[in-house]
Amino acid sequence: MWSAFTEEPYDLDINRDYSQENAENCLEKQGVGYDLLSACKRQATFFYQVSLPHFRYKEFLSRCLERYSMYLCLQKLEGDRFLVPCYDMDIVWHTHQVHPVTYAADMQEILGRLLDHDDSVNDRTPGSKLSTTSESTAKLWRKYFNQSFALPGAMYRGKPPEGLLLDLTQKMKESFLLEERLQISCDSFQVVTSSGCSRLPAEILLTLQQVGSCQGNSSDQSFSPEWKLFQVNLENISPEIRDNTKIWSRKLSSARVVSLPLEGGAYSLLAKVTLVKARPSVKTLLGFSEYHKTCMALQDYNFHQFYQTIQQGRQFELDITDEVKVCVSLSMPAAAAQCRVQKEFTIEPGSFYECTIPENIEALWGPIPLEMLPLGVDNNCRAVTHRLMQKGGKDQEIQFSGLSVYLIHSLPLGLSAVQVFVGSKMAVVGHSVGAATIGCMKELQLDTRFSNSAWRAMLIKDNTGDLGILVAAWRKERSIGGNGQIFGDFLYYDLENNKSYEFTLPDANGKYILKFDDSSVDMVSGIVNIAATEQNITHKICLIFSVSTLYLLVQPYPDDIHTWNDNRE
Fold first, then answer.
1. Could you tell me if 229 and 176 are in contact, meaning their C-beta atoms sit under 8 angstroms apart?
2. Which of 11, 66, 266, 357 makes a 20 to 30 Å CA pair with 168?
3. Are 392 and 476 part of one and the same domain?
């Protein structure tokens, strides 16, 4: 069928020049008057509207087919009148046109004419053709079918975010978790005993621990990062006898390399040696006496001592017992390198202030469904800025991380937004959404878990598209000590990884701590721990602030809150 319309080859030539200028020349040669390039670009907006998971549900698509049939019926009843479909009808309409010969025949049979799909009408300002015909289509739908024209999950949900937010590369995302680290490995070791020692070394394990660190677990001050340097079985090593001593030694050609913070404070070397009796007695063989015995030695070093010992090629010595000693040679096989590490951020408090919504809403709010302020609506809103702080520099002082969060609330619009900035650029946005956008998504459990609740939701997105949806409601169900407890019930659906997180605030133990994979946040102290494995730190930061926003929005309050406050006082 392709060859009947054009001499252009059907198969794609990957070596051909497909630049925009060349494409325009090709269209001109083919005599195509329609602006195909602009039409293709407009499809980006359409694809964004139909990209949520419910557009792949069989039951939803069946409803789409039914409403598309009703739309064609309305077209027949109203003649040549311009009618605007919802996106559930539009996706079927697009699919129908993929088979152009069949589509043309069907339209001729149903309508007696070819129904033109004009997607160039996309101006949504009040009084525009799209705006007025949308209203008239909704009235006609109600008139003929006695149904609501609007369908949850099938309505316009704003422009796609691509090009409106900072395009964060993976390298930029990782930069917040990078730290210059010292590369350490073990070259060799010796286990030295006196020649008459009653026990012989059978195994050695050497680990290195960072002292005084509580990274990754603010509630557990005893937590310290620990690295295993090596573990070796000594029973197959023949000792060297020298000056009334026995020496078990080995060079480690493929020793593990560990990365240590350059400003790491202090370190501890821990050697564990398993000793066995040189001449086991009958009691030992029968199990009445201890045959294996594990002894250990721990030695602390400040960073300067630790670094200088390695740099000068000196050995670290640890006395396991009066008769057993371990000597270890460490080296720096490579220069300091940038490595991904776990990071702790502290949320800096901020104060709300009044601001004015500009005529160009995107300039303040970012890519949200509302492109223009409705006529007669108050253009004042409230905002607050929080910076994320972290320790850094030689003295580990608290400093700005380069990440900040901007919260905006508009009571007249019923709209809230969370914006994560990298420097001065908006990178991620979370904004409130309703049933018109997410009403058909079964992953959110709106018809089950949240069916009897006044739920609220936020959609999180970056420059690549939607990242996830957070839903919250207020409950009074749990019992602690016989008393009912009120709490926020949350469900977060990660659209990127098709994964759900369910949690409450406070949790069953009354704590305000959230955990997402290996990252966590203490909502009371404002301490955020991001795991070294985290792939999208700005996503998690936006999610954390969206949780706190919804926690406040879903809380019930008296109808006359001012009288209620006066009575409390």
1. no
2. 357
3. yes
Q: Are residues 131 and 195 both part of a single domain?
A: no
Q: Find where tokens 């980006």 sit.
A: 44
How far is the C-alpha of 50 from the C-alpha of 52, rounded, in Å? 6
Note whether residue 128 is domain-resident.
Answer: yes
Give the model's pLDDT for residue 221. 36
- What is the per-residue pLDDT for 392? 64
Lowest-confidence range among 16-25, 82-91, 243-252, 466-475? 16-25
Residue 352 DSSP label: -
- Burial of residue 56, with CB atoms counted within 10 A of its CB: 0-12 exposed, 13-18 middle, 19 or more buried: exposed
Note the maximum CA span of the chain. 109
Same domain, yes or no: 312 and 379: no
Provide, for the chain, the percentages of residues in helix, strand and coil under a 3-state DSSP scheme, each rounded to the nearest 5: 25, 35, 40
Looking at residue 222, what is its pLDDT? Answer: 38
Q: Are 540 and 534 in contact (CB under 8 A)?
A: yes
Number of structural domains, the chain? 3
Assigned domain for 162 exists? no
Domain encompassing residue 375: 343-553
Tokens representing 118 are 């004009």
pTM: 0.72
Beta bridge partners of 530: 343
